[in-house]
Amino acid sequence: MIIIKTKEEIEKLREGGRRLASVLYKVKEKVVPGISTKELDTYAEKLIREMGDEPAFLNYRPSGAKIPFPASLCVSVNDEVVHGIPSYEKILKEGDIISLDLGLKHGGLFTDMAITVPVGKVSEGSLKLMEITEQALQVGVNAARSGNTVGDIGHAIESFVRSGKDKNGGQQYGIVEVLSGHGVGRAIHEDPYIPNFGKMGKGEKLTPGMVVALEPMINNGTKHVTLDKDGYTFRTADSKRSAHFEHTILITGGEAEILTKI
Ligand code: MG
C-alpha cells in the first residue's frame, strides 16, 4: 500500500533529510586512505545520536535476513554493490571507490541516502562510473513527477545509462536489477518498489505526497550480482566496480523535491 504523507510528516521528513545529508557529507570528509570502514560507521552513528536522532539501519532486519544489520552505515567498497558491513579489518586504499549508504530516523520518520566517493586519486573509469550513476539518479528525480509512473522513472534511468556506453570504452554499463528504490517515511522500506529499469507508463502512478528513495546501482560490467555469506554484502558477479547514489524525494505537483539535501 502506498502511503501519502501528511503536511506534518513532510515537514519532519524535510528536516530529517537535511540532517541526514549533513551527516553523510561529514562522513565523506573522513574518507582517506588508511581509515577503516568501521571508523566511518562509528562517526556516522555519533553524529546522528548527537542530534537526538536514530540510525535507521542499525539492528534493522530485512525480511529473510538471519541476523539484524550490525551497523549504522553501509560501506561498500569497489566490487561491493550495497549493504557492505563496516569492519576494523577493512582499510581503505588509495584508488578505491566506496558507497556510503545511511538511513536516519527523525521524529519517528525515515529518510535514506547514499553517495559513492573516491578514496584519494582514482582511475578515469571509476570517475566516469560514479559520474554516470550520480547523473542517473538526477535523471530519475527529473522523471519523478506527479502523473508519471514508477515505470517512467525506471525507463528514464535505464535509457540514460544505456546511452552512456561511450564513456565505458563502448561497453554497456550493468544496471543492477535485483535491488531497487522504494517508498520510505513511516518505514525504511515501503511501497512502491522502483526498479532502475522499466517501461514508460507502467507501474504505480506517482501522486503528490508520496515520498520515495531512488537509488540507481550501476556496474562497470555485468548487471549480475552475488550475495556474500554474511547475508548482506552484494557484489558484482564479475568483480568489476559498482557505484550507488540515492536520494529521498517528495513527489509534488511539479518537480520532485529532494529531501536529502543540505
Ligand atoms: Mg534505500
Spatial extent as radius of gyration: 17 Å
State the distance separating the first and last CA atoms: 30 Å
- Ligand species: magnesium ion
Class derived from helix and strand content: alpha+beta
Largest sheet: 5 strands, antiparallel
Number of helices: 4
Number of strands: 15
CATH superfamily: Creatinase/methionine aminopeptidase superfamily
Structure explained in plain terms:
The protein is built from four helices and 15 strands. With 262 residues, the protein is an alpha+beta fold. The strands form four sheets. The chain has a five-stranded antiparallel sheet with strand order 8-7-9-14-15. The radius of gyration is 17 Å and the shape is globular. The protein has helices at 7-29, 37-50, 124-143, 150-162; strands spanning 54-55, 73-77, 80-82, 97-106, 109-118, 174-175, 181-183, 190-194, 211-214, 217-219, 225-227, 234-236, 242-244, 247-250, 257-258. The protein has one domain: Creatinase/methionine aminopeptidase superfamily (Creatine Amidinohydrolase).
Write the layout of secondary structure elements.
Layout: H1 7-29, H2 37-50, E1 54-55, E2 73-77, E3 80-82, E4 97-106, E5 109-118, H3 124-143, H4 150-162, E6 174-175, E7 181-183, E8 190-194, E9 211-214, E10 217-219, E11 225-227, E12 234-236, E13 242-244, E14 247-250, E15 257-258
Antiparallel strand pairs: 1-4, 2-4, 3-12, 4-5, 6-10, 7-8, 7-9, 9-14, 10-13, 11-12, 14-15
Short descriptors:
262 residues, globular, binds magnesium ion, Creatine Amidinohydrolase
Short description:
With 262 residues, the protein is of the alpha+beta class. Helices cover 27% and strands 24% of the residues. The strands form four sheets. Strands 8-7-9-14-15 form a five-stranded antiparallel sheet. Strands 1, 2, 4 and 5 form a four-stranded antiparallel sheet that branches.
